[in-house]
């Protein structure tokens, strides 16, 4: 059993994870309009991964006999950003998610809620990996360029990377 406050914080995070899934779906659609098939596939894979994050938290609340309160998911901004800006926005988004997870973990520790603290460790580790991956993509876009052959090469890499998303994190491929 976890406290009502703890359940509410995890419930709010479920909403953020669903928003993340929606955000990545919008970015996948944006990449499709630019004919960046690998980038679109990568964002689609991330979309699926975020859904698994939301469901992991949902299952935790159920297992802890806590109320699940689902709230409306905000519409993601569609925008007309170029590919570098898309990944910069992705990094900003993941950093905000990391901060939210850390805040929830701080609360679990303040309540001496060891079960939730252990549960959240997985997400802490996941965020390190997610931020590192996006940082790497941004670095390559800056190095090789976000147009022409540089972009084509990175788009091909993202197609390959899309197949790996989730295989090292326990999420569905
Ligand atoms: Fe589920 Fe990328 O945070």
Explained architecture:
The protein has 173 residues and is an all-alpha fold. The protein has one domain: Ferritin, core subunit, four-helix bundle (Ferritin). Helix content is 77%, strand content 0%. It has 5 helices and no strands. Helix 3 runs antiparallel to helix 4. The C terminus is likely disordered. The chain binds MU-OXO-diiron. The site of MU-OXO-diiron (FEO) has 7 residues, from helix 1, helix 2 and helix 3. The site of MU-OXO-diiron has 7 residues, from helix 1, helix 2 and helix 3.
Short description:
This protein has helices spanning 4-33, 37-63, 83-110, 114-144, 148-164.
Top keywords for this entry?
173 residues; 0% strand; binds MU-OXO-diiron; Ferritin; mainly alpha
**Which ions, cofactors or small ligands are bound in this entry?**
MU-OXO-diiron
Strand content: under 5%
CATH homologous superfamily placement: Ferritin, core subunit, four-helix bundle
CATH class: Mainly Alpha
Specify Rg, calculated over alpha carbons.
17 Å
Number of helices: 5
Would you tell me the overall average pLDDT?
A: 94
The biggest beta sheet, please? none
The amount of helix comes to over 70%
In oligomeric terms, what are we looking at?
A: single chain
Number of strands: 0
Would you identify the regions where 5 or more consecutive residues have pLDDT less than 50?
Answer: 168-173
Order of helices and strands: HHHHH
Shape: elongated
Overall number of structural domains: 1
Structural class: mainly alpha
Q: What CATH architecture do you see? A: Up-down Bundle
